[in-house]
Amino acid sequence: MERRILIERTAKQIFLLCGIVAILAVCSITIYMIAKGTPALSRVGVSHLIFGTEWAPTASEPSYGILYIILSSIVGVACSVAIGAPIGLMTAVFLSEIANKRLASLVQPAVELLAAIPSVIYGLLGLMILNPLLYKMEKIIFEESATHKFTGGSDMLAAIIVLAIMILPTVINVSTSSLRAVPDSLRSSSLALGATKIQTIFKVVIPAAKSGILTGVVLGIGRAIGEAMAINMVAGGAVNIPLPFNSVRFLTTQLVSEMGYAAGLHRQVLFTVGLVLYVFVMIINLVLLRMKRGGQLDD
């Protein structure tokens, strides 16, 4: 009896320690980003940094405007999630509700393999396959335009497509687990009341699993926001208005592209860009967490 109590107390202390370590990690990262990212704000100016549209750190008169970079990140992530989340959810519905066990056992490993592929491979495939296809489309659309700057297919649209594919495994796996966790009694009750299988899926099963599905979408957004290597390979890397056939640069690719050689104020501003990205991620997570809790309260 005493041994069991000792084990319980030890386990509680271990869990408490793990929780404290997690909290300290988040607090340490936050403090470090604020300490490294705020000095440049006083030297460059918040309004110039956030609302400026010209990025020229090596010019004779340097300019550090990141508005287009912020907008590119927002538009790219939002569009990729708008494409990838519905496809991921429908795939999860197919695996958990429609496909037989044999077919599901073939599709599920393929989905898990997508999650295991390194991001640089996605970037390489996008560079070799997607960019040439988009370049052909670009030439057809803008062949008579004298003002359009051709990007060779390295543009915002390529980044959106690559990100949409990359978030699929996360959304599919989490959503599939959530859908399978819905009690069969709910399905049986719905069918017994005269609902069709499709009606049961969309009006009973998915609403019952919406908390887990939203978690999958949140994780997918986190993957999209934090991606750098693949986007750096397919998006072109220029600071432009985030239009489909414009070469663009995201907040993450901004850090990857210039941190290696930046110095002085330029390096400080890049830390500020990292701080903006960190705040951006925190805001999105807090909003989605609030939506998730609101949905649970509605239930």
Describe the overall structure.
The protein has 299 residues and is mainly α. Helix content is 77%, strand content 1%. It has a two-stranded antiparallel ribbon. A hairpin with a 6-residue loop joins strand 1 and strand 2. The longest helix has 36 residues, at 2-37. The radius of gyration is 23 Å and the shape is globular. The two termini are 41 Å apart.
State the helix count: 13
Which structural category do the helix and sheet elements fall into? mainly alpha
Radius of gyration: 23 Å
* Oligomeric state of shown chains: single chain
The H/E string reads HHHEEHHHHHHHHHH
Number of strands: 2
Please report the distance between the alpha carbons of the first and last residues: 41 Å
Q: Bin the strand percentage.
A: under 5%
Protein topology:
Blueprint: H1 2-37, H2 39-44, H3 46-51, E1 55-56, E2 63-64, H4 67-98, H5 101-116, H6 119-142, H7 156-180, H8 184-192, H9 197-208, H10 210-226, H11 229-234, H12 251-258, H13 265-298
Antiparallel strand pairs: 1-2
Helix pairs in contact: 1-13, 4-7, 4-10, 5-7, 6-7, 7-10, 8-9, 10-13, 12-13
